[in-house]
Amino acid sequence: MISSSSMATCFILGLSTPLNTTSDPELLGQLLCPRPKKEVGNDNRGRRKRVGFEPLPNGVVCLPNGFAISGADCMGTFWGFSGMEGWSDKDEDEDANHKRTTSDLETLIQTRCKSGTLNSEEALGYFNSMIQTKSIPSNWTFKCLFGALSKMKQYSAVVSMYKQLIGCRQFQPDVSTMNIFMNCLCRLNRVDLGFSVLALTFKYGLEPDAYSLNALLQGLCKNSALSEAVELFWKIEEKGYPDVVTYNTLIYGLCQSGKWEKAKSFLICMVDSGIPPDVYTYGVLISALCREERIHEALALFEDMTGKGINPNVFIFNSLISASCKCYKWEEAAQLFQNMIDCGSLPDIVTFNAVLDALCKEGKTVEALNLVEEMTRRGQMPNLVTYNSLINGLCLSGRWREATKLLNKMMGEGIPPGVVTLNIVIKYLCKDRRTNEAFTVLELMTERGLKPNVVTYNC
């Protein structure tokens, strides 16, 4: 049976097929109909306090998402923020005092959120103080708090808080707060509930914006529900909502699934709609082509991008340089490397590792070692991937002594060899019929707590 929220969403968006908003009716009911506040005791003037959750006898408060915080944290670090103290006998003084308390709380929370040092426990304590104040803080303050938690990937906490917030009589949701709620559900791979929140948004008489629909589109693409994503995209276009983020989201989803031709068609549609592609659009498409080793098409797209005055970033250069090296197109790789420096995009460790790996596989270990010196001069220190490529190249060339020195140097720099590193050594020892030494390395692997894999035993 299709839920009412599903039907509402279908009606609103005009979808030909109803979207299954949830397979859990009870969970949807909890989402759309938050449980009422409960009386949890008297305040200091004998009045019953009503909040959205009930503390346990041991003073610990359990939120619906499983978080637990102490009563002290819940009431807020600062005395006035519970909204229960400092009241005057006169109503006007009481209201004024509450407004000052709320204003102080808002200032504190916004400052803490901007600081970047807010932790989840502190945020939960502030939230509890906010919903207990008589004059509930502004939506902007709630958005600051939810935004800070979202950056910490505390999506479950935000969902639980928002469900409690909807139960507060004074709270009037707006599109921005509903968007955060929707986005967190999508991040938790609950796109079905995301669509339920979309229906709830309309129920509140609010008009979703591009961000609302982009969050749902991103959730569908993340779950590889591409046919539903494409259908939603066309409905978004009918409503006149698509922007560069909408197109980029769909193009990224299609490229991740290897549907390059379909992604290309949406690029053309994007241009025809008067929405210019940005560096992210080109980066996604070029990276997809490079993964398929379609270097000529990738370079053509690169020229189209630069011709439009869009400066490529490090990610795009790395994709092209890596693909050129894998295809042994050294001249293109060298030219791109120079272009990268000319554009002000300094090569990073990924750039150097891509070139090093290709050089080592070609047996050009002298050039590879020279490049390591160059990268060190530029402030890029070798990492595990760098050493793996170099050891592979030296073993391939039969330069065992240098490979051993490099392995010792690597460990001396505090970079422990991984399974891949030791598999390389075992592989070439076995090829050289030095089985006793290969078994010694295998013992070293187990001593270091590394588990041999299929590659190890196939050597």
In short:
It contains 24 helices and four strands. The protein has 459 residues and is mainly alpha-helical. The radius of gyration is 29 Å and the shape is globular.
- Main β-sheet description: 2 strands, antiparallel
Q: CATH-wise, what's the superfamily of the domain at 243-346?
A: Tetratricopeptide repeat domain
Rg, alpha carbons:
29 Å
Can you name the CATH architecture of the domain at 243-346?
A: Alpha Horseshoe
Low-confidence stretches: 1-92
Q: What strand line-up does the widest sheet have? A: 1-2
C-alpha end-to-end distance: 56 Å
Name of the CATH class of the domain at 243-346: Mainly Alpha
Q: Which tags fit this structure?
A:
459 residues, mainly alpha, Serine Threonine Protein Phosphatase 5, Tetratricopeptide repeat, 24 helices
Description:
With 459 residues, the chain is mainly alpha-helical. The chain has a domain at 243-346: Tetratricopeptide repeat domain (Serine Threonine Protein Phosphatase 5, Tetratricopeptide repeat). Helices cover 65% and strands 3% of the residues. It has 24 helices and 4 strands. Strands 1-2 form a two-stranded antiparallel ribbon. It has a two-stranded antiparallel sheet with strand order 3-4. It is globular, with a radius of gyration of 29 Å.
